[in-house]
């Protein structure tokens, strides 16, 4: 009989493979081990056997069959579940990775393949000097987009050589606690708020970072020099199903790169996943602003997001600043910087003065006690399936989050013809400034879907007031909210950019300016208009933005992108419980939208603010969500893993907890609690 102590002390052989660069030294080792040997002891035993003098501190065991790292060095082999049939690879945790940034530049740097993706992205952003890393994530390109690119490459006679920015010597990405690159809480680099280049005071310490002054300019300044052929080769989603494919490849933030099948020197896309850009500041966020601008630009050029012809010309005009004004990093920009610094100081002083004096307390008390209302003559349009639209003028009153309309102003004291509650509705602009058309499309949730109503305003000022009120009401806010007046001003500034007239100067300039309009508008408009026509129309629109600085033009571009109806929507094909056909689910920062796959029309909207709880049944991969008023939905995801949608919802809720009072340290545990799930 064998005693239990004798049985427990029996050793066994374990095959270990070492990933090293020394060709003359063997890579496979057979060690005699016991189940009570801890992982750290196994590492020590292996290193002694290898007998190579080098730094092994970045090495760890990767268990190929289980697809997991053995990072808890104090755990025993028994506790880890390692037995004689296990194949362990002793390899580096930090490996080279190629990242395609939103501006289509590729950087190559060392990234942790053992950390959760959330932490890895944070480290990457520190090296690239992008604040608020929680807004970004890593995306693996879908097979469809790659197939299209491979087909194009085969047809091209000359081999494509990709310009890669090599940051492999990055101290921030080597796993060592050395210089944090450009990112530092105590010494954040300051950028010229006009041109977006590093200010002279911070250039002196660029040499300690992999991001030299030249490299930083590559990331912080736009270089729109792509050929029309390159634009034509891009993957252009035509349908909602195509758009859903773009979002299928998001990596799981709660697992490591290696666990998700990513190999050394693979290429991934670094993209802004969550469309809530918090605390943007031109002085510190030149790289971040430029990358957001570039992501927006490519989304518009590839028609990933729809916009009107008028809006496309505005986007083209804002991009055209780089072709027309050519504001270089010269003395002109230097003079601008000095002026802007004085303006900032004056602005800060005036803000301080208002704070100390307490502002106009009467107005503040009025805002608290008396919620503003709007009352105007507007036209109401209700689409009818079998007849023409009925357009009728009514007297409208907007109070709280509801719109009531009456036959005329005199009857406003009585009962309204109808009262529309806008909380949770979809608000879509229906504007053509040239045609003096200022409409607001309201999709109001009702029991059997969405009730479609159009409001037609007389002019842009009336439109801005009512549009801002509708946007706030859809979020459950009233006009007493502090964001109402900034929203009105934002709408007016966007309308002003759209309001241009043809001038003889623009026509003459179109002959002399060397511009490639094919690089500034989507393929749809290059097919519709000739090159000279496009240049003339872009120059018309450019008149309203010609006085902007380059950074201001980027911020205006981002703002205009945010005002598009489809902004911030990530699409997935889903099958709702009890429904026999597929639908599209749009996930935004504040709501979920069920969309008819055939027509593209929204069917129902659910706000995150009304959400009570959500969970996932991992066995059948079904997401279930409960809302107020006993509303509950459940669906399975057909175009991606349900974990991606689960993470999107939890991620947006996590980002809504941020505040400017907090320091920049994120509550990583809370993020994983909200997004990780319990598989």
CATH topology group of the domain at 96-147 and 162-168 and 191-305: Ubiquitin-like (UB roll)
The CATH homologous superfamily of the domain at 96-147 and 162-168 and 191-305 is termed: Phosphatidylinositol 3-kinase Catalytic Subunit, Chain A, domain 1
What share of the residues does DSSP label as strand, in percent? 15-25%
Helix content percent band: 25-40%
Category from helices, strands and their pairing: alpha+beta
Gap from first CA to last CA: 43 Å
Protein name: FERM1 protein
Pfam families: FERM_M, Kindlin_2_N
GO cellular component, one term: cell projection
GO molecular function: integrin binding
Q: Helix and strand layout, with pairings?
A:
Layout: H1 4-8, E1 12-18, E2 28-33, H2 39-50, E3 59-63, E4 68-70, H3 77-80, E5 87-92, E6 94-100, E7 106-112, H4 117-128, E8 136-139, H5 143-155, E9 164-166, H6 200-203, H7 213-220, H8 228-233, H9 240-246, E10 267-272, H10 286-301, H11 309-324, H12 331-357, H13 361-369, E11 373-382, E12 390-399, E13 402-406, E14 418-421, E15 426-432, E16 437-446, E17 449-457, H14 460-474, H15 484-498, H16 504-512, H17 523-528, H18 531-542, H19 550-562, E18 570-576, E19 583-587, E20 591-595, E21 602-607, E22 611-617, E23 622-627, E24 631-637, H20 642-655, H21 668-675
Helix pairs in contact: 7-10, 10-19, 11-18, 11-19, 14-15, 16-18, 20-21
Protein name: FERM1 protein
Family: Belongs to the kindlin family.
Pfam family, one: FERM_M
What would you note in describing this structure?
This is FERM1 protein. The chain is an alpha+beta fold. Among the domains are: 11-92, Ubiquitin-like (UB roll), CATH 3.10.20.90; 96-147 and 162-168 and 191-305, Roll (Ubiquitin-like (UB roll)), CATH 3.10.20; 373-479, Roll (PH-domain like), CATH 2.30.29.30; 570-675, PH-domain like. 34% of the residues lie in helices and 22% in strands. The longest helix has 27 residues, at 331-357. The chain is globular, with a radius of gyration of 29 Å. The two termini are 43 Å apart.
């Amino acid at each position: 009989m064998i005693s239990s102590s004798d049985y427990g002390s029996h050793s066994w052989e374990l095959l270990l493979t070492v990933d090293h660069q020394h060709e003359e030294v063997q890579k496979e080792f057979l060690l005699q081990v016991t189940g009570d040997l801890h992982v750290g002891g196994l590492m020590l035993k292996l290193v002694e056997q290898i007998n190579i003098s080098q730094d092994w501190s970045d090495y760890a065991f990767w268990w190929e069959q289980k697809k997991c790292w053995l990072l808890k060095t104090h755990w025993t082999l028994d506790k880890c579940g390692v037995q004689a049939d296990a194949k362990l690879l002793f390899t580096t945790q930090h490996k080279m990775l190629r990242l395609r940034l939103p501006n289509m530049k590729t950087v190559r740097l060392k990234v942790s393949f053992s950390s959760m993706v959330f932490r890895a992205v944070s480290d990457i952003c520190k090296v690239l000097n992008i604040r608020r890393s929680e807004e970004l994530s890593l995306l693996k390109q879908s097979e469809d987009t790659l197939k299209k690119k491979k087909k194009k490459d085969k047809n091209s006679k000359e081999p494509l050589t990709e310009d890669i920015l090599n940051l492999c010597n990055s101290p921030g990405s080597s796993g060592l606690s050395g210089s944090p690159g450009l990112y530092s809480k105590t010494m954040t680099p300051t950028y010229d708020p006009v041109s977006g280049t590093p200010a002279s005071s911070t250039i002196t310490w660029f040499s300690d970072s992999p991001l030299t002054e030249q490299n930083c300019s590559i990331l912080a300044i736009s270089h729109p020099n792509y050929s029309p052929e390159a634009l034509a080769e891009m993957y252009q989603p035509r349908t909602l199903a195509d758009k859903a494919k773009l979002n299928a490849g998001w990596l799981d933030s709660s697992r490591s790169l290696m666990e998700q099948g990513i190999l050394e020197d693979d290429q991934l896309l670094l993209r802004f996943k969550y469309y809530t850009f918090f605390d943007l500041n031109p002085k510190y966020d030149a790289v971040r602003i430029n990358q957001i601008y570039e992501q927006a630009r490519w989304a518009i050029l590839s028609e990933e997001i729809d916009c009107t012809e008028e809006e496309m010309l505005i986007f083209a005009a804002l991009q055209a600043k780089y072709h027309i004004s050519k504001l270089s990093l010269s003395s002109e920009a230097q003079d601008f910087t000095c002026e802007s610094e004085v303006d900032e100081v004056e602005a800060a002083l005036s803000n301080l003065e208002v704070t100390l004096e307490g502002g106009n307390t009467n107005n503040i008390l009025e805002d608290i006690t008396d919620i503003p209302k709007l009352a105007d003559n507007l036209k109401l349009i209700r689409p009818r399936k079998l007849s023409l639209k009925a357009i009728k003028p009514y007297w409208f009153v907007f109070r709280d989050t509801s719109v009531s309309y009456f036959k005329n102003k005199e009857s406003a004291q009585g009962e309204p013809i109808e009262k529309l509650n806008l909380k949770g509705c979809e608000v879509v602009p229906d504007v053509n400034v040239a045609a003096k058309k200022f409409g607001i499309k309201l999709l109001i949730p009702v029991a059997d879907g969405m009730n479609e109503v159009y409001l037609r305003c007389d002019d842009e000022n009336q439109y801005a007031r009512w549009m801002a009120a509708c946007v706030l009401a859809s979020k459950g806010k009233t006009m007493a909210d502090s964001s109402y007046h900034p929203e009105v001003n934002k709408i007016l500034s966007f309308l002003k950019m759209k309001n241009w007239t043809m001038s003889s100067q623009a026509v003459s300039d179109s002959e002399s300016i060397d511009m490639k309009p094919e690089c500034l508008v989507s393929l749809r408009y290059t097919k519709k208009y000739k090159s000279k026509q496009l240049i003339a129309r872009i120059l018309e629109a450019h008149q309203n933005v010609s006085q902007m600085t380059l950074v201001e033009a980027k911020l205006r571009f981002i703002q205009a992108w945010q005002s598009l109806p489809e902004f911030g929507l990530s699409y997935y094909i889903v099958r709702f419980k009890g429904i026999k056909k597929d639908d599209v689910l749009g996930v935004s920062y504040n709501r979920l939208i069920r969309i008819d796959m055939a027509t593209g029309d929204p069917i129902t909207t659910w706000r995150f603010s009304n959400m009570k709880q959500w969970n996932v049944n991992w066995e059948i991969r079904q997401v279930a969500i409960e809302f107020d008023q006993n509303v509950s939905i459940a669906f399975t995801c057909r175009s991606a893993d349900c974990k991606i949608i689960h993470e999107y919802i939890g991620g947006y809720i996590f980002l809504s907890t941020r505040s400017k009072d907090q320091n920049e340290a994120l509550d990583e545990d809370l993020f994983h609690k909200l997004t990780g799930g319990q598989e």
